[in-house]
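Sat 14:20. Reprocessing the chain from the morning session after the first attempt stalled halfway. Input below, unchanged.
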Amino acid sequence: MTSAPLASPRPPPPIGVGIAGYGLAGRVFHATLVEHTPGLRLRAVFSRTAERRAQAAREHGGITLHHSYEALLDDSQVDLVVVATPHHTHEALVVQAAEAGKHVVVDKIMCLTVAEGERMIEAARRAGVLFSVFQNRRWDSDYLTVRAVLQSGMLGQPFVVESAVTSFGPSPGYRNPTSDRPRGWRTYAEFGGGPMRDWGAHLFDQAVQLAGPYPVSVYADLQYRRDWDVETAGTAWLRYPPGAGEREGLRYSIETGSISALPKPRWLIRGSEGAYLQYGRDGQEAALHRGEVGPRLMDAEHAPRVVRYLEGQVRDVAVEQVSGNYLAYYENVAAAVRGEAALAVEPAGVLESIRLLTEALDSAACGEVIGLRPPAAGLETSQVALPGSDL
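Finished this time. Tokens:
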């Protein structure tokens, strides 16, 4: 007598996703990545505008279109809500989704103040739902390569890290009008606009990951070259404490803005044993506009250059690039919702970068260096320790 073969276990049902907002973030990033992530299923889109609802219907057949956020939250097919709306709306929409029992992903910038972020985190904790922030640029090829080089010790003790995203003239997101306004919402302070918040949400987050959340001081300067109430360009400087055996600590600068007809390097790092130079940004965003998803290295013209002091001379040395992959973010979210993995982007860690960013904005407003308190004894941090540091 032969026994019947065991049936293969059924895969869990897909996690239904509803997206609030169908602009650049909701359409190009979130909808595309969700549709390419195993275990997730795009079920619904909410947008206030009929034009964008129609666009979502054309691009994603079979989804439900909602005219209100409340309807999206009432949709029984939606388990996970993605908030991809203007910055100033994030707190209220995340809290509302959590109270409705939905898991939540919020696009960057997480929030405009630390207090907002704390309320968002507490709402998710009370409701017992997953809450994460779309810090997709932790999966940029350029950032991952920088992290690997620093961790390898190839540059020795890092002295200065310069991280910049610069351009010339407003980007499309700044030019596109919003309702009856002549420009995009990112050009208005009331909506949380400005390049230091927009790109700075990524660059400060990367600084926390690389160097830690506890510099001893921050100083920032913003330039206003247009008749807008958000800056045209800005730079922030973070000064870190020395590590064990060091006389000086790391200096870390962050620059954003649209005054550079010749772009600055994306990364320029100087250390005791060499230097790292790289121009250009990760190509995944451009690829998503073309409908291309998946791991990518930097384009050949944007490959990094590393020099080291060897045998009495400064010489170029080979550096292996690390592939970027935005899909990894949503793959982790899906696994975390199913209880199969820890969440890769915890909001409490992102809130550390919000704290530094808001301190930088305060510094720019008052024109003074702001000293920062050290962490409380025993407080855990989430940064990647650099060689030679005691963080």
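The first strand starts at residue 15 and ends at 20.
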